[in-house]
Each structure stands twice: as structure tokens, then as C-alpha cells.
Specification:
Length: about 240
């Protein structure tokens, strides 16, 4: 009986220690007290193979999309009212041949380009930031094209984001946990923007920062890439 009690006490102590360790790790990662979100929807698998491009061209006979890499097409969307100002990043990978990896690539709505961080290692702690005017429509959805998706080979060889911390005007807003999938991922997020739409004059800009907290390692390179981050929400129509 004594041995059973000792074993039970040991199990309880291990459980408490594990819980405390997890709580400490969560706090250190900045997730404590903010929503932790998984994708609301995941799109179809991307296909930029010759067969995929041929299929796209057949379906795009009306010319709605500029190319197979075009995310939004020419129809009306949130971007009829959304205004993206300054875009910057904590670091940027140097251009490689004809490709560059500047911050603005992650919001050009073109999956052939990408922002790639340029810090040593796998990019933990690196960030990309967007500045929007106060009168920008409120954001309720964030979609992410994770990794360097212009080819499946590039996507596999380079690192992709696993956890992305979102902050708004310096305050932690939510944590996005991305799946390691070759597809567009959409997140429903707490509203970003000012609710009092009649009193926006003099309000500060809205600064949204996305900070890399963990990654899915690439098979060849440690550079972490995001091809696109784009928004949807309300107040446009």
C-alpha cells in the first residue's frame, strides 16, 4: 500500500510539474491570455505544375485572373476599400538571381513572390509589419499563403511558419497556428480596427505585426518564407 501511495504521489507531482512547465513556456512565447487560433478553412492544394496551369487557363477563359499565381482576380473584394501603407520587416533575405524577398512581396496578392526573413537560423522572432490608416475597413479574417509556394520543391526545401503571433499597435492580439499544407489558410480573428466609425479623425494608424514563433523546417534551407498575408472583413460595402 505504501508503495502505491508513493507511486500515486509521484504521478501527481509529475503532472503538476508538467503543467507548470507548459504554462511557463506558453507565457515565454507570449501566448498566455490571447486567443490561439487554428485555420477556419484550408483551400484546395495549390497546383503550379504544367497540368495545373493548363487546367487554370481553361477555367480562366474570362480573364478574371492575371495568372495562376493571382490570388484575388479582378472582382470586387475587401480591397475595394482596404488601404495598405508602409510594409516593413525585421530582416530580408538578399536577392537570389532574379528573385527578391522584400517585405512588400507578402502583400502583393501574387503567390509567385514571397517575403523571406534574412536572419541567421530559422527566423524565430523575425517579423513583418503593415501600417493601415485609421479609416481602413475593420479586419475580421486573415488568410496566409505559407512558405515559398511558387514551386512545390521551393516550398519543401525552405522553412514554413508553424506559429505566428499577431500584435496590433504593440499589443498582442492573437496567435495563429498554421498547418503545414500547400494551400491557402484562412483564420477568423478578433476584429482589428476602430469600432466607432463616425469618430476616426485624429486616430492613430493601425500597425499589424506578424512575428514568427516556431517553424516547420525546410529540407535544405533554414530561411523561413511567407508568400502572402491578406485580409477580409467589413465596412467595405
Amino acid at each position: 500500500m505504501k508503495n502505491k501511495i508513493i507511486a500515486l504521489c509521484t504521478l501527481i507531482l509529475v503532472a503538476i510539474s508538467t503543467a507548470l512547465t507548459e504554462s511557463k513556456a506558453q507565457t515565454m512565447n507570449g501566448t498566455a491570455g490571447i486567443p490561439e487560433l487554428s485555420p477556419k478553412t484550408i483551400g484546395n492544394k495549390l497546383d503550379f505544375t504544367p497540368q495545373g496551369i493548363k487546367k487554370f487557363e481553361k477555367e480562366n477563359e474570362d480573364g478574371m485572373y492575371d495568372s495562376v499565381y493571382d490570388l484575388m482576380g479582378g472582382g470586387c473584394s475587401f480591397y475595394c476599400g482596404c488601404q495598405i501603407g508602409e510594409q516593413k520587416a525585421s530582416s530580408t533575405l538578399k536577392p537570389q538571381g532574379r528573385f527578391d524577398y522584400k517585405a512588400s512581396n507578402a502583400h502583393d496578392l501574387n503567390m509567385a513572390t514571397a517575403w523571406v526573413e534574412g536572419a541567421p537560423g530559422d527566423g524565430i522572432g523575425e517579423w513583418i509589419e503593415y501600417t493601415l490608416p485609421a479609416n481602413n475597413p475593420r479586419i475580421t479574417n486573415i488568410s496566409i499563403v505559407n512558405g515559398l509556394v511558387r514551386t512545390k520543391k521551393a516550398w519543401t526545401e525552405n522553412s514554413r511558419v508553424e506559429a505566428l503571433e499577431v500584435s496590433v499597435n504593440g499589443k498582442k492580439h492573437c496567435m495563429l497556428y498554421l498547418k503545414d499544407v500547400y494551400a491557402v489558410q484562412e483564420f477568423e480573428v478578433p476584429t482589428i480596427g476602430y469600432d466607432d466609425r463616425d469618430n476616426l479623425e485624429g486616430k492613430p494608424d493601425i500597425v499589424i505585426r506578424f512575428r514568427i514563433c516556431s517553424v516547420y523546417p525546410g529540407t535544405r534551407y533554414k530561411d523561413t518564407a511567407i508568400s502572402d498575408i491578406f485580409f477580409d472583413g467589413m465596412d467595405v460595402h
